[in-house]
Amino acid sequence: MVAAVRVHKTGGPEVLTYEEVEVAAPGQGQIRIRQGASGVNYIDTYFRSGLYPAPSMPFISGNEGAGEVTAVGQGVTDFKVGDRVAYVAPLGGYSAERVLPADRAVKLPASISYEQAAGMMLKGMTAEYLLQRTFKVEKGHNVLIHAAAGGVGLILGQWANHIGANVIGTAGSKEKADLAKANGYHHVILYREEDFVARVKDITKGALCEVVYDGVGADTFPASLDCIKPMGLFASFGSASGPIKQFDINLLQTKGSLFASRPTLNTYNAKRDALVKSAADLFKVVSSGAVKIPVNQKYSLKDAQKAHRDLEGRKTTGSTILVP
Ligand SMILES: NC(=O)c1ccc[n+]([C@@H]2O[C@H](COP(=O)([O-])OP(=O)(O)OC[C@H]3O[C@@H](n4cnc5c(N)ncnc54)[C@H](OP(=O)(O)O)[C@@H]3O)[C@@H](O)[C@H]2O)c1
Hints:
Elements: E1 2-7, E2 16-21, E3 30-40, H1 42-49, E4 59-60, E5 64-72, E6 84-88, E7 97-101, E8 105-107, H2 114-118, H3 121-134, E9 142-145, H4 151-163, E10 166-171, H5 174-181, E11 187-190, H6 196-203, E12 209-214, E13 228-236, H7 250-254, E14 259-261, H8 265-268, H9 272-287, E15 295-300, H10 304-312, E16 319-323
The chain binds NADP nicotinamide-adenine-dinucleotide phosphate.
NADP nicotinamide-adenine-dinucleotide phosphate (NAP) is lined by residues 41-43, 122-123, 126, 147, 149-153, 171-172, 176, 215-216, 219, 237-241, 263-265, 311-312, 314, 316.
């Protein structure tokens, strides 16, 4: 038996139940790992609350982690016992040990710790596809990123800066704005106090942005569209303030022949080749020091409820991890 955090019925953070579970031997194409750390992501709150339906009940929360391979199932050729690996995989992350499909794991470079990896695989590969594939950000582009001091936000800002973009962010407090400025952002707007559209117009001298990356959802819509240049892209990649309920496609015409996308990491990295390339690109920017992974909250697995309360209460910055 190993320690894990399960959800037996959907609801608030109180439904996260710390208990002992059996972990099976790895089946065909699977590996079993002893986890060094598990990542906490906003998507974990969507499964916990029922906004996203879980494939089965009860389920172990969490889609991200890193650790050491302790057993390999039949047909696994890429990994052996003792390998250090990291992953984004189906639910099961908040656990001291777990089984996962081998084709969702990658080998972890020696220079990256388990804790760092648990804080960066899901958020960092999201930054990778958003900046390189949903829209190809180039030197000199104006880019607006909401929730700049958050987990995805701090990685996106550093990476966009590394590419050479003019990086504009929004943040919920002065402290968060200062942190974002120390992590790649050239300009940070306090969107709870300031009109972010007016500030983006001002910062870009009326030129607006090639792309807006919006993980906030309801609260920043439709204002985000007014920050985009004609024929630019609205990349709506999350719903921290709640989902956008109505999307009138005619808005894209009136706001300047805009494009809009609602991308997810699962689609972009569905194929093994894409996942391996995405992880390699992430490891490259992290290993070179161009992107640092601020793991600013670390909780014991048994304190997962507090981790969720803090994340949903806007008390966290950067990445959050759980350790067994
Ligand atoms: N589509 C994908 O592939 C993908 C992958 C990963 C993450 N995501 C999405 O990216 C977003 C960020 O994820 P994350 O894990 O890095 O979380 P996070 O940004 O660390 O936390 C969410 C942040 O959103 C901001 N926020 C604005 N309004 C909020 C509200 N009403 N309630 C709570 N927070 C609010 C807060 O920052 P301020 O206080 O500064 O406003 C908060 O810190 C989420 O929407 C997530 O679902 C999408």
